[in-house]
Q: What sequence folds into this?
């Protein structure tokens, strides 16, 4: 019993935004956290290249070093919290911490989405925990919900707004009718977008998170290289307006979906999606995150909150530390498996190629304003066996002003295979009356 009272000693690798938040929240709520965990949780060592700044944050509450390996080598440290980010040194340090018998808490979705299989295997072999609630959707406890709260369910699909930068940009484009480039500059000025926003705007960050959720939801290994990734850089303000007129909002979604039947497997994809405006998730604005999960027993559940930021992410880091504090002395069999399913019971369900994905579509075609154009376009879709849900044709003057000879045709389709749609788009694009690249946005009813 005496051992249970000994505080858990934590070493932080990196004390930037999240590390600083973690230190502050642990200090502020230490009494409440101790009452919940059954023992204290103390940051006793911090590694950061900027030693002076780190020391100004922690004062004399913890030892500060420049070299992360000093933290890993310290026999008194029970848990290493990796908040460095990226695939490089972070991977080496996480594996070294595991080899040294330390539990690991990380917010590093990129690392786990790409190298998770190796890292979890190493942790399992060593009998230590790797906890990563903070890696997906900031302060929203989505990993715990999928791994534990919904464990009775066969998960059918997960769909989430899991990147705040892109959601902020899409919200601004819709509110102000501005194009992507203009809003991106504003997002950078306000600090919602990085100086190099590539990972966010091209969908890579969301795909890292969707990869982790797919593994936990379906018991498959992490397979980021199989994810289909498409960002928001090609979206025009007019598409957001047309979607609105049709009763939809455009959101960048990370989707993981189980497909039964002849070509069973898992869909793993990130792309802009039309979502019915009446869905709760369609009304998630600004930099907020939200994840919908559909289980066979529970139906559809929604998790909403801040997906980034110092203290929201720290909230998730500390929840992991509390879990580790509770289970520190438990045998490995009593712990929740890293990816929810027992390591020897992982599924070999394949991640389906994008061509095999089935969804419905929004198509926008800039066409010559003349007779017969619409008939030729719908004829191509009919030949491909793609049925049409709705057609919206703009007046030429609305699109190009008085005397315009061009107009926009917007088509919503019913469900079809992506490969079939690709073939139909290629044929429509070849028509001399189709005057620009066809815009295709996938549609998700999320019902």
A:
């Amino acid at each position: 019993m005496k051992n249970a009272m000994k505080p858990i000693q934590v070493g932080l690798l990196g004390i930037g935004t999240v590390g600083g938040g973690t230190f502050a929240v642990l200090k502020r709520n230490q009494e409440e956290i101790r009452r919940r965990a059954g023992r204290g949780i103390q940051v006793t060592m911090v590694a950061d290249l900027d030693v002076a700044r780190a020391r100004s944050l922690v004062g004399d509450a913890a030892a500060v070093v420049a070299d992360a390996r000093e933290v890993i080598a310290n026999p008194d440290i029970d848990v290493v919290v990796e908040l460095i980010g990226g695939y490089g040194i972070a991977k080496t340090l996480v594996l070294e911490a595991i080899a040294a018998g330390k539990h690991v808490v990380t917010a590093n979705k990129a690392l786990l989405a790409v190298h998770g299989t190796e890292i979890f295997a190493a942790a399992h072999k060593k009998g230590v925990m790797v906890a990563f609630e903070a890696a997906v959707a900031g302060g929203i406890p989505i990993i715990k919900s999928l791994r534990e709260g919904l464990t009775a369910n066969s998960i059918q699909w997960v769909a989430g707004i899991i990147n705040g930068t892109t959601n902020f940009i899409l919200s601004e484009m819709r509110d102000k009718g501005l194009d992507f480039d203009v809003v991106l500059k504003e997002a950078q000025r306000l600090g919602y977008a990085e100086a190099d926003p590539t990972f966010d705007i091209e969908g890579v960050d969301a795909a890292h998170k969707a990869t982790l959720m797919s593994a936990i939801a379906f018991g498959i290994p992490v397979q980021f290289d199989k994810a289909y990734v498409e960002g928001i850089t090609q979206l025009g303000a007019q598409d957001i307006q047309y979607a609105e007129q049709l009763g939809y909002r455009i959101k960048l979604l990370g989707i993981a979906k189980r497909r039964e039947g002849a070509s069973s497997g898992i869909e793993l994809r990130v792309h802009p999606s039309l979502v019915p405006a009446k869905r709760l998730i369609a009304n998630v604005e600004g930099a907020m995150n939200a994840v919908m999960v559909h289980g066979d027993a529970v139906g559809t559940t929604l998790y909403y909150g801040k997906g980034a930021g110092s203290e929201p992410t720290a909230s998730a880091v500390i929840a992991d530390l509390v879990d580790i504090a509770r289970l520190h002395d438990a045998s490995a069999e009593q712990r929740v498996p890293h990816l929810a399913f027992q390591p020897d019971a992982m599924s070999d369900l394949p991640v389906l190629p994008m061509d095999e994905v089935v969804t419905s579509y929004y198509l926008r075609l800039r066409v010559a304003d003349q007779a017969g154009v619409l008939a030729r376009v719908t004829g191509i879709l009919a030949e491909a066996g793609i049925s049409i849900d709705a057609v919206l044709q703009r007046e030429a003057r609305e699109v190009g002003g008085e005397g315009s000879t061009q107009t926009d045709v917007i088509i919503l389709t019913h469900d079809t295979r992506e490969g079939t749609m690709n073939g139909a788009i290629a044929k429509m694009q070849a028509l001399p009356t189709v005057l620009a690249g066809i815009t295709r946005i996938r549609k998700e009813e999320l019902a």
Observations:
- The first strand starts at residue 8 and ends at 13.
